[in-house]
């Protein structure tokens, strides 16, 4: 089974895959008018309003007060997202408009396929409106997500060189950390499905509890270590040729610019060779159990100082043995980033490494376990006074279409996906059987060269596969239920760029 997970993951990532500012809205006109309501070719009217296809609707943002951590107003494009860029968006048949693919042909990799739907923002609104004009750039589907993670976590530019506010992050250090990354993975998974045409694809997770080493760092999975340079990926892995973007945050801030998507060299990773003063190692089962026992989602200032906060402890700033915030060492989620000692250990650049996906899928499964155990009311998620970007009704930067933090404070069962290790045993047996019957049907003809085999053979193979699978506990796969509802869509942290610095 290990190899099946591998095949699914690697082949999906490398097959063509297919998100930020919709292409159609990356124009001077759209920037000046702050409207993204493209003319529908069907009837020549904006959003196809004449034919009743859609309407151009004003975006209303929440006016709930933010916490005191960010002492500015009107300096950063992510404030009151998405109003700096858009005050009106097309709404088609009840859901926010989703740009349709112009060209749906499949290329060879999510990393190499340019997004047909989205471009990335490479300058601030004020840079664009003063002189430069629109600052957008094409990007591959994989790198679109790398850029989004950079953009949500970057410091605020205060104008000029070396003038930034580091103590802000619209997706980390506060309550939205878990909902934001949940939407991020859903979007990412969806885009990989679209580009590969494989709508059964599910992001695999790596259960790192009590692991002593990076068990998924093999050439079959996310790449082994290079024998020539321990900081690099083995040349035998496809990931050795990947180039990173948005990995040099202190440099952009120093120059007063944003990451512009330029390639910046190979992926770096040297698991276990991290600075022991920053984190001990990978999280243990008992640390996960303690974290799950915390009944308050977030507490006090709802930032990195928060005590006895489930979110802060899972994120890694709360001590996973005492629950006290401002821990002297990073734990849980952040410890894994530090442990990887390379691209993963800088917040803004971390999504370059495919380990990010496997790691965050598992973090999301711990969030899911907490939601199931504590069954919080929706109102348990803060509506006001969370650090900027993190209140319940705030739209997540930089997603388009728009998602609210509080809407993702619900069980994955309601969204339509499940973790194999969290299923109740009965359901799990049925699902395994169905899933392996399906896999068996696909495998047998290939293995034996026979096109027709009875259900009996398939069932036998399924049982065998299920047995093998039960022996393998460390990797798993998220799975979608039949009734998956697509959330309204189509499609890291620190004072400088590192988790280390984040503790300040
Ligand atoms: C844009 O122009 C305004 C006023 O002319 C100025 O205050 C601001 O600093 C400029 N912004 C940039 C990024 O150059
Ligand atoms: C993009 O950024 C790189 C390095 O950060 C810089 O060398 C390059 O000139 C920039 N390109 C554009 C088009 O701004
Ligand atoms: C990697 O670990 C070394 C040795 O502990 C440390 O000096 C370095 O800062 C770490 N680098 C990254 C990117 O984590
Ligand atoms: C967290 O608890 C410590 C120890 O009791 C206390 O000193 C600190 O003020 C608390 N911090 C917050 C933010 O409540
Ligand atoms: C947080 O902890 C560090 C040491 O780990 C300490 O230097 C710093 O003063 C603490 N911050 C606050 C606000 O207590």
TrEMBL record:
UniProt cofactor(s): Cu(2+)
Molecular function as annotated in GO: identical protein binding; metal ion binding; tyrosinase activity
Region (Disordered): 476-504
Biased composition, class Polar residues, residue ranges: 488-504
Example of a GO biological process term: melanin biosynthetic process
Main location: membrane
Transmembrane segments: 443-468
Protein name: Tyrosinase
The organism of origin for this protein: Pangasianodon hypophthalmus (Striped catfish)
């Amino acid at each position: 089974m290990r190899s099946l997970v591998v095949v699914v993951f690697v082949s999906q990532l490398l097959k063509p895959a297919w998100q930020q500012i919709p292409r159609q809205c990356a124009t001077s006109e759209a920037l000046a008018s702050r409207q993204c309501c493209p003319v529908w070719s069907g009837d020549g009217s904006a959003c196809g309003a004449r034919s009743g296809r859609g309407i151009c609707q004003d975006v209303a943002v929440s006016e709930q007060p933010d916490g005191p951590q960010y002492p500015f107003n009107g300096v950063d494009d992510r404030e009151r997202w998405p109003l700096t860029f858009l005050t009106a968006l097309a709404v088609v048949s009840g859901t926010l408009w989703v740009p349709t693919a112009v060209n749906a042909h499949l290329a060879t990799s999510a990393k190499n396929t340019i997004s047909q739907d989205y471009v990335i923002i490479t300058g601030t609104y004020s840079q664009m409106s003063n002189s430069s004009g629109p600052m957008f750039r094409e990007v591959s589907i994989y790198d679109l997500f790398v850029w989004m993670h950079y953009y949500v976590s970057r410091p605020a530019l205060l104008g000029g060189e070396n003038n930034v506010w580091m103590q802000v992050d619209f997706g980390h250090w506060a309550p939205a950390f878990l909902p934001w990354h949940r939407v991020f993975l859903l979007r990412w998974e969806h885009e990989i499905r679209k580009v590969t045409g494989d709508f059964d694809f599910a992001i695999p997770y790596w259960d790192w509890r009590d692991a002593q080493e990076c068990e998924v760092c093999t050439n079959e999975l996310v790449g082994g270590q290079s024998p020539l340079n321990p900081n690099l990926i083995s040349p035998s892995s496809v990931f050795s040729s990947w180039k990173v973007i948005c990995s040099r945050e202190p440099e952009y801030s120093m120059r007063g610019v944003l990451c512009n998507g330029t390639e910046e060299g190979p992926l770096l990773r040297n698991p276990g060779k991290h600075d022991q003063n920053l984190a001990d190692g990978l999280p243990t089962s008992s640390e996960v159990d303690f974290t799950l026992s915390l009944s308050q989602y977030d507490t006090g200032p709802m930032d990195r100082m928060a005590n006895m906060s489930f979110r802060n402890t899972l994120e890694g700033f709360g001590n996973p043995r005492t629950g006290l915030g401002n821990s002297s060492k990073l734990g849980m989620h952040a410890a894994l980033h530090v442990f990887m000692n390379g691209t993963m250990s800088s917040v803004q650049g971390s999504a370059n490494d495919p380990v990010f996906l496997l790691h965050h899928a598992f973090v999301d499964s711990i969030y899911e376990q907490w939601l199931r155990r504590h069954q919080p009311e929706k109102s348990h998620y803060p509506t006001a006074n969370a650090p900027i970007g993190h209140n319940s009704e705030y739209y997540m930067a930089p997603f388009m279409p728009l998602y609210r933090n509080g809407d993702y404070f619900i069980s994955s069962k309601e969204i339509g996906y499940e973790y194999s290790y969290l299923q109740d045993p009965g359901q799990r047996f049925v699902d395994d059987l169905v899933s392996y019957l399906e896999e068996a049907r696909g495998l047998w003809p290939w293995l034996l060269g026979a096109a027709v085999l009875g259900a009996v053979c398939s069932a036998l193979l399924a049982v065998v596969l299920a047995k093998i699978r039960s022996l393998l506990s460390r990797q798993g796969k998220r799975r979608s239920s039949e009734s998956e509802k697509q959330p309204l869509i189509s499609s890291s942290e620190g004072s400088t760029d590192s988790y280390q610095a984040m503790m300040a």
